[in-house]
Structures are given as C-alpha cells and as structure tokens.
Amino acid sequence: MTKSSRTVDTRPVYTLTSTPAVIESHDAALAAARALRDRLRARGDETQELRRLPDATVTDLLESGLYGVMKPKRYGGSELGTETMVDVTVELASAEPSAGWVYMLWTAHMWMQAQWPVKAMDEMFENPNTLASSVVSTTGDVVPVKGGYSWTGTGFFSSGVDHCNWLTAAVPVKRDGEVAERRWLLIPREDFEIVDDWNTVGLRGTGSKTIKLNDVFIPEYRTLASKDAEDGVAPGREVNTHPMYGAISGANFTGAMSAPSVGAARGMVELFTERMAGKVHQSDAVSQQNSPYLPDGTGTTLARLSFAAAQVDALHSLLLNDASTYGYRPAKETNDVARAKCRRDHTYTAQMARRTANYLYEECGGTGLKEGSPIQLKWRDTNAAAAHHGLTWDWQAEAWSKAELGMEPAPRF
Fold first, then answer.
1. I need a labelling partner for 215 at 20 to 30 A (CA). Which of 47, 124, 143, 284 fits?
2. According to the model, what pLDDT value does residue 22 have?
3. Cα(122)–Cα(214) distance, rounded to whole angstroms?
4. Which helix (H) or strand (E) holds 40?
5. 217, 232, 247: which is the final residue of a domain?
6. Strand 193-195 vs strand 209-219: parallel, antiparallel, or unpaired?
7. What is the spatial distance between Cα 197 and Cα 160, in angstroms, rounded to a whole number?
8. What is the DSSP string of 68-103?
9. What CATH number is associated with residue 343?
10. Could you give the dihedral angle defined by the CA atoms of residues 221, 227, 231 and 232, in that order, rounded to the nearest 10 degrees?
11. Residue 152 parent element (H or E)
C-alpha cells in the first residue's frame, strides 16, 4: 500500500531534521511545558477546526524533547519516568486538553516502544522524531503466516494518528486449537489508511480516527506478546535497563491516561478563578447591585471554587502516588491486587475530574452555554477525556474488589 496522501510527507514527524532536546530533569520538563501554554491556547481555535493538532504544536512537542521523558536513553530519550509524564500532561492539558491527551499517548508509547526486539526498535528510532499511535479496539482476524502475521481489518480511536509514522495495535491472534493470544503489532504508516471520521463534542483536536488495513504483513520481530510486557520480560529489557521498563504497564503505559481529564479540570478551575476575580473586584457599585449573585451568592460560589481546586489537587496527587509506588517496582513483585488498584485509581481520577468539572459548571450560568465559551470547552473536554472505555468505573471497581477479596479475577491478557 502506498501513502494515501501527500500530506503525510509534509508533517513534522517526516520533515523535521533537528534532533529533539534531551530534558535533564523533572523541573526542566515542567518549565518546558509551561513555556508552551500560551502557544497552545493561541492555537485553540485552529485545533478545534482541524480536528487534530496543528503542525506547529507537534513541532513544539518534538523539538522541546517533552515526548522523550519515557523514551529510552539508548535512543535519545531522557527516561525521567511516569511522574514527569503525569505532571507535563496535566500542565499541557490545562491549557489545551486535546494537546494534553495526544501528548500523553505519544509519550506513553515511548514506554511501550522500549519493549520491542532491538531490530524493531532500531527501525522505529532511526527517525529521532518518531511518533506512534495505537489501536486496542479492532476487527478482523490476525492470521499467522510464514515469518509473521497477516491482518485485514479495522482499528478504532487512534489518537494523533495523522502525525505518526508508526502504529501499534493490540490484537487477539488465533491459532488452531489454542486460546487466542493478545499481541502487539508494529505497523508503518505506509501500510494503513486513515478514515477521517473524528467529529465529536469534546477532545476534537485529538484526531482519534479509524484506521483500515488490507492484507498487511507484519514480520514476527515487529510483534510483542502482551504477557511479556506485563510480566516485565519483554525483549527490549535486554538493552533498556531502567527499572520503569520492567514495571507493570498500568503504572507506565496507561499510567497517565486519566491525567488529561485532571488537566482539563484544572484549566476549568483556572478560567473560573479568572472569571470570579473580575466579579468580586468590580469597583462599580451599580454593576454589583445589578448582579443577582453579588454579594449575596458569592460565598456559595467561592466555596464551590475552593472545593473544585482541592479536588483537582487531590486527584493529581493520587496519580503521582501510584506512579512512584508502582512505576519502578519489578512486575513480578506487583500482585493482582496492586495491578487492579492502579487501574481503579486511574478510573476514579478521571471520573472524579469529570464530576468536579460538572460541579463547577453548574455555577457558570448562561455564560457557560454560549458557543465558544472557554469554560464550556474545558467542561466538554473533561467529560470527553473521562469517556474512554478503559476508564469505565463500574468495570474497574469490580475488578479491584474481586482481587482484594480473593475472587476469580478477569483474564489479564
């Protein structure tokens, strides 16, 4: 299959010739993220219109080296770990949630890319600006053939895929007489088609589109058993020895999945704070008299603002606690209860961020209903970020309870 469009060749992952910066510390990463906030905000309307990230935003993320905080040092990354990824994601998402969401996925994929056989990693990272998207919801059988696998099928919700030169796909592989095995496939951009079908009420700029494949061959060395990655014994561990690459994916690969919702909620708190500051510091007594909320309703509104800000801080801290507790611990030392706890906490974080945004939105009145309202946009994005199937509360809550009570757990792979 040839590239479906010339636009593929003009995007930053293909055209940038500069080597990404290597960020040396957590504080330096946060400073780099904060330096991008105004640019991300300024491109907000363009991001909404494009329904994907603007090229300039992708260039900023690549050149800054921010997406390299989970990338192996062997291939030019900084290996700063999940706490840094969480903090940077929250910072970026508070300014522009779609950028935070795509950043999180691209960066987390650097952890997954570190798991592959060396031959596959060498191919991926030959381009120092390599980016990978993914699909985990797919259709079509993956068939074992000589030297690898063949797949004709479809993958859904591939965030940021327009800008990527690689795709990772989690698929069931069926062999005669055996239970299906979950494997990750690594597929170059030339081998699949992107369907422009991302039209949504929230996270419009993530470009989380459908991909289609027709009789694509994936060589064995570009595949990875999900179980090996979960058990900390993937082939990449032979050369990528940082402890995080031998820890569970729930604390690293999916460890920041709920951070964009926290960041979006934080951005909503910031906007609401600015709005309230303009109201409570009005010097025009007549304007205050004409408002039904000032001064009589101020106390209730301020209490809501305080609660929302505290909630966001608490949720952020929960993510960081799990990252530091499980992000470097060998997978073989992390039991099913701890694995389920990570998934439970991420889901709880996203859903409570959503509730916090809804709670604050109740105080926005008619202003928050207007099209183009920045607060309304953050509200929609927070809800969209919490809508990911992997962040469904009832499912993850039940899984942790079963693990904690010693009941039969759901299959891990």
1. 124
2. 96
3. 26
4. helix 26-42
5. 232
6. antiparallel
7. 13
8. GGGS-GGGT-----HHHHHHHHHHHHHH-HHHHHHH
9. 1.20.140.10
10. 20
11. strand 148-158
Give the range among 116-120, 327-331, 406-410 with minimum mean pLDDT.
Answer: 406-410
CA angle 121, 124, 125 (to 5 degrees): 85
Closest CA to 240 of 360, 57, 74: 74
Tell me the residue type at 90: V
How far, in Å, CA of 127 to CA of 150, rounded?
25
The angle subtended at Cα 91 by Cα 85 and Cα 93, nearest 5°, is 95
Task: List b or e across 143-167, with b for residues whose CB sees 16 or more CB atoms inside 10 angstroms.
Answer: eeeeeebebebbbebbbbbbbbbbb
Distance CA 191, CA 193 (A): 7
The answer to whether residues 220 and 303 belong to one domain is: no
- Is residue 276 domain-resident? yes
176 and 103 both lie in a single domain: no
For the stretch 56-90, pLDDT in tens is 999 999 999 999 999 999 999 999 999 999 999 99
Rg (CA), the chain: 22
Strand-strand pairing, 166-173 and 181-188: antiparallel
Same domain, 15 and 34: yes
Q: Domain of 169: which CATH number?
A: 2.40.110.10
Rounded-to-integer distance, Cα 280 and Cα 257, Å: 36
Range of the domain at 287: 259-404
Instruction: Give me 191's structure tokens.
Output: 């081998």
Q: How far is CA 107 from CA 53, 79, 228, 406, in A?
A: 15, 11, 20, 34
142 or 5: which leads in pLDDT: 142
Handedness of CA 30, 35, 41, 44 (dihedral sign): negative
Ramachandran angles phi, psi of 206, nearest 5°: -80, -15
**Would you mind telling me the total number of residues written for the chain in this entry?**
413
**DSSP alpha helices (H): ranges in 281-335?**
285-290, 298-326
CA distance linking residue 179 with residue 320, whole number of Å: 37
pLDDT digit string, tens, across residues 339-395: 999 999 999 999 999 999 999 999 887 777 888 889 999 999 999 999 998 899 998
Pairing of strands 209-219, 148-158: antiparallel
Give the chain's end-to-end CA distance (angstroms, integer).
Answer: 31
Residues 108 and 155 in one domain: no
Q: Strand pairing of 166-173 and 132-135?
A: parallel
Q: Residue holding tokens 């470097």?
A: 328
352, 315 in Cβ contact below 8 A?
yes
What tokens were used for 84? 């840094």
State which of 97, 124, 151 marks the end of a domain. Answer: 124
Number of domains into which the chain is organized: 3
